[in-house]
Amino acid sequence: MALKSTIYKVSLGIADLDRPYYGNHSLMLARHPSETEERLMVRLLAFALYADERLEFGRGISADDEPALWRKEYSGEVRLWIEVGLPDERLLRRASGRADQVIVFGYGGRALEAWWLKEKAALARLRNLRVLALDDTQSAALAAMASRAMELQCTVQDGQVWLTDGPRTILIELRQLNNAAG
């Protein structure tokens, strides 16, 4: 018998002073059986930082032709393609050809550093790619916030992100690994 996805219900308030963007979102996220809570929460962080009326989650880990998140025009043109984790360079090249902007939210400590050393020369050719990194303490703190029903507040100011679930607040400072304009 195949394992089913686990559903997470999220009430997310966003106050992004850098863009500026303010909104409240009721989300239902499906966590694939092979997906960790850490990856789920990094996807949620990516949503919070790029929230828009047309930003949507992809079909998940098992869909190679869709990103973790994307924003498309009504005509079907892909404006924003967001990947989470340590994606293959070929996938990012393909995404770069399909979308106006491609963003990677990388995490994983030493694995992230090894991936970046291996891929940075090839990825430097992709002018519309931006690679952001979370350190392992930040992604672990995100994972610790995960629960099946979440009420979160996200505040963004001067490039810093505060995510609060009531009793806990974590500070996230993403590090940009490449020199792409963003």
Describe the structure.
With 182 residues, the chain is of the alpha/beta class. The protein has a single domain (6-176), classed as Roll (Restriction endonuclease-like alpha-beta roll fold), CATH 3.10.640. The protein contains 4 helices and 11 strands. The strands form 2 sheets. Strands 3-4-5-6-7-11 form a 6-stranded mixed β-sheet. The chain has a 5-stranded mixed β-sheet with strand order 2-1-8-9-10, covered by helices on one side. Helix 1 (37-50) packs across helix 4. The longest helix is centred in the N-terminal third of the chain and has 14 residues, at 37-50. The radius of gyration is 16 Å and the shape is globular. 28% of the residues are buried.
Sequence-ordered SSE layout with sheet pairings:
Layout: E1 6-16, E2 21-31, H1 37-50, E3 55-57, E4 69-72, E5 78-84, H2 89-98, E6 99-106, H3 110-123, E7 129-133, H4 136-145, E8 149-157, E9 160-164, E10 169-173, E11 175-176
Parallel strand pairs: 1-8, 5-6, 6-7
Antiparallel strand pairs: 1-2, 3-4, 4-5, 7-11, 8-9, 9-10
- What's the Cα radius of gyration? 16 Å
The share of residues in helices is: 25-40%
Kindly report the CATH topology: Restriction endonuclease-like alpha-beta roll fold
* Shape call: globular
Count of the separate structural domains: 1
CATH architecture: Roll
Largest sheet: 6 strands, mixed
How many alpha or pi helices?
A: 4
Give the strand content: 35-45%
Strand order of the largest sheet: 3-4-5-6-7-11
Structural class: alpha/beta
